[in-house]
UniProtKB/TrEMBL annotation:
Gene name, Swiss-Prot/TrEMBL: thiL
The family this protein is said to belong to: Belongs to the thiamine-monophosphate kinase family.
EC code(s) of this entry: 2.7.4.16
Enzymatic reactions: thiamine phosphate + ATP = thiamine diphosphate + ADP
Descriptive protein name: Thiamine-monophosphate kinase
Top EC class of this enzyme: transferase
Misc note: Reaction mechanism of ThiL seems to utilize a direct, inline transfer of the gamma-phosphate of ATP to TMP rather than a phosphorylated enzyme intermediate.
Species annotation: Rheinheimera riviphila
């Protein structure tokens, strides 16, 4: 299969067919209609074999994850996903692998109401890059720069499952049959909190998704907002699967530093805190208050109850 046959067969119809796509895959460029009164949000993420995924990963799961991690960035800014571009570098063409990967990508794009509108293919080490684009009402994008002293810090869902899933895949831990499917699902098939992210537009003062671990990602908000934070580690939400599978210290390390949960961490002013649970309850995603914003710019302090908590690990860093 040549380059253009590959595109036509695997990617020409990927994702839901949107009415705002005038020209999609197959031309020199895509043509899309941008809504009046909205800003365009654009994010890019690259996954490299041997760095972000193992060579024997299920290609369908890889297609899913590639879309979900990009859409998660849009969710963190309160954006509605719309279009995807894919640049794929392949060492060789394997029809079965490509079909499964394309199916996973297309199913997930369809779930989030995205359409693949273009990209590029080339030969080389397996590398996958997606550029995701979405809409947000003009001036309503949630950024990392809006946290204020006194704001409360929240996270969605539970943290640490994906990190445990990585350890399980690497045969570093044992997980009971009761929890194994849940842990692997959280690692291979993350969920982007898209609807909840849009609901946060009127509530959150800042937000981002947790891809590199809470201790690696929360400081980005602190640095951009020029504030500090106190986080109570006893309030970090963990699944029963994680708590049953390892001791508390190991579970906490997964939750604070493991990454790849793709949950949201966000801050809320005190005067909006009362309406938070009411506004978010229709989305069925639990939220947990884990701390508050302080005036010590850039400083993340951890405590356990009323006592200081010493923790040396940080989140994942590429370099």
């Amino acid at each position: 299969m040549g380059e253009f046959e590959l595109i036509a067969q695997c990617f020409s119809q990927a994702g839901r067919s949107r009415t705002d796509v005038v020209i999609g895959v197959g031309d020199d460029g895509a043509v899309v209609q941008v809504r009046d009164g909205f800003d365009l949000v654009v994010t890019t993420d690259t996954m490299v074999e041997g760095v972000h995924f193992f060579p024997d990963v299920d290609p369908r799961a890889l297609g899913h994850k590639l879309v979900a991690v990009n859409v998660s960035d849009l969710a963190a800014m309160g954006a509605e996903p719309a279009w995807l571009s894919l640049a794929i570098t392949l060492p060789k063409v394997e029809d079965a692998w490509l079909q499964a990967f394309a199916e996973g990508l297309s199913e997930t794009a369809d779930y989030y109401n995205c359409q693949l509108i273009g990209g590029d293919t080339t030969r080389g080490p397996l590398t996958l890059t997606v550029i995701a684009k979405g809409f947000v009402p003009r001036g309503k994008a949630i950024t990392r720069a809006g946290a204020k002293v006194g704001d409360y810090i929240y996270v969605t869902g539970t943290l640490g499952d994906a990190a445990l899933g990585l350890k399980l895949v690497q045969n570093q831990v044992e997980v009971s049959k009761k929890h194994r499917a849940h842990i692997l699902q959280r690692f291979h098939y993350p969920t982007a909190r898209v609807a909840l992210g849009q609901a946060l537009r009127t509530i959150a003062s800042s937000a981002m998704d947790i891809s590199d671990g809470l201790c690696g990602d929360l400081p980005h908000i602190l640095n951009r907002s020029k504030v500090g934070a106190i986080v109570d580690v006893s309030k970090i939400p963990m699944s029963q699967a994680l708590k049953d599978s390892c001791d508390w210290q190991s579970a906490l390390q997964c939750a604070l530093s493991g990454g790849e949960d793709y949950e949201l961490v966000f801050t809320v002013p005190e005067n909006k805190r009362g309406s938070l649970e009411v506004l978010l309850s229709p989305y069925g995603v639990p939220i947990s208050c884990i701390g508050r914003i302080t005036g010590l710019a850039g400083k993340l302090e951890l405590k356990q109850g009323d006592q200081p908590f010493t923790y040396q690990h940080s989140g994942y860093q590429h370099f």
